[in-house]
Amino acid sequence: MAVRAAVLPAVDAPLEITGIDLPAPGPGRVRIRLAAAGVCHSDLSLSNGTMRLPVPAVLGHEGSGTVVAVGEGVTHVAPGDDVVLNWAPSCGACPACARDEVWLCANALSGAAEVHARRADDGTDLYPGLNVAAFAEETVVPASCVLPAPDGVPLTDAALLGCAVLTGYGAVHHSAKVRPGESVAVFGVGGVGLAALQSARIAGASTIVAVDVSPEKEELARSAGATEYLVASDTTARQIRALTGKEGVDVSVECAGRAATIRTAWESTRRGGRTTVVGIGGKDQQVTFNALEIFHWGRTLSGCVYGNSAPARDLPVLAEHIRAGRLDPGALVTERIALDGIPAAFDNMLAGKGGRALVVF
Ligand SMILES: [Zn+2]
Ligand SMILES: [Zn+2]
After folding, report:
1. pTM, whole model, 2 decimals?
2. How many CB atoms lie within 10 A of CB 344?
3. CB of 46 within 8 A of CB of 130?
4. Per-residue b or e along 122-150, where b marks 16 or more CB atoms closer than 10 Å to that residue's CB
5. Interval 48-91: pLDDT, tens
6. DSSP secondary structure string for all residues of 41-71
7. CA of 44 to the centre of ligand 1 (A)
8. Residue 352: its pLDDT value, please?
């Protein structure tokens, strides 16, 4: 029987809400009924071609749900289990996996090139976006994309763990390695930015500055842990230095993926400060530095993939923070929508509005 899904027919084409047919799960695969799926900026980037993966595709990569059926050889989950989707599974065999840098696994997106479903109306092959095709009532994924959902976390909230929370938490704890008492600036108050703000608070950061183009996100940012809120402008770096004894923050976390924001984030740190870039920008975003300033400031600029997280190891840690009341994935959600609300959620993201939109099935 067909299930409803949001299908991207081609790059830059509008999403279509239509029926898809899923096969019974083959060996090593799992069929899941989705509970919730977050709308992430990467879904927008796939739909407009900033990021490229095979199409037509079912997008959605931040999801949670319940196992309906498992294929041969799947033993770590069973029908009826609640699970969180991991869009970047590690192969365990490539050089990155051997170095224990599973977030850089060379084969993480190999599943994206394999047809996982067909359109119910005309039989067209469909690809699973970033592996898991969560913008659908049900999906079939490799067992490596399935993690048991943590106890004590509402299943709809648990969807957020799969991308925004792992990424924002990891940017602060694994990439920037924020220490107690350090000052942190987070650029971009969307889903990942809100998770980064909460994570900076967990790390014991002293001053936590949130920066966004919209003046409307101040309350949201402050409730996530921001002690200061700035509307982005030409003077953002100067304002941040003024808030930190003319020094600049110890750590900047850039969640926008734009050249100008990366440059401002870097300029907002003190001498020797660290900047972690979480945002995914396009090839046209060129960031420039002169050789003298690189020497003089002694700063570090790092990329960050999926929060440099090892999902199977980190999920229980996040769950512990949630149960203790230190982390609240539900607070990232500013809108609960149905599948047909995804195009409007994309528009809001482009306009810089809101935090996470969550599709609730
Ligand atoms: Zn994402
Ligand atoms: Zn690997």
Report:
1. 0.96
2. 13
3. yes
4. eeeebbbbbbbbbbbbbbbbbbbbbbebb
5. 998 999 999 999 999 999 999 999 999 999 999 999 999 999 99
6. HHHHHHHHTSS---SSEE---EEEEEEEEE-
7. 10
8. 87
Among 76, 218, 290, smallest CA distance to 208 is for 218
Which tokens is 175 given? 């990439």
Give the ligand whose atoms come closest to the C-alpha of residue 255: 1
Ligand found nearest the CA of 132: 1
Ligand 2: centre distance to CA 172 (Å)? 23
How many angstroms is it from 354 CA to the middle of ligand 1?
A: 16
Q: Residue 276 is inside which H or E element, if any?
A: strand 269-277
> How close is the Cα of 278 to the center of ligand 2, in Å?
21
Element (H, E) at 165: helix 164-170
At residue 232, the 3 state secondary structure works out as: coil
| CA of 96 relative to ligand 2 center, distance in Å | 6
DSSP run (H or E) holding 139 = strand 138-142
| Domain boundary assignment for the chain | 3-162+328-360, 165-306
φ and ψ of 173, to 5 deg = -90, -35
Integer Cα distance of 319 and 333 in angstroms: 17
pLDDT digits (tens, 9 = 90+) for 20-43: 999 999 999 999 999 999 999 999
Q: Dihedral angle at the C-alpha atoms of 99, 104, 105, 107, nearest 10 degrees?
A: -150
CATH number of 165-306: 3.40.50.720
CA atoms within 13 A on the CB side of 347: 7
In eight-state DSSP terms, residue 172 is I
- As a whole number of angstroms, the distance between CA 36 and CA 114 comes to 23
Nearest Cα to Cα of residue 59 among 94, 17, 99: 17
| CATH class of the domain at 3-162+328-360 | alpha beta
Q: Which residues partner with 147 through β-bridges?
A: 84
H or E element at residue 140:
strand 138-142
* DSSP state at residue 127: B
Confidence check: pLDDT of 260 > 90: yes
Cα atoms in the Cβ-side hemisphere of radius 13 Å centred on 56: 20
Report which DSSP code applies to 167: H
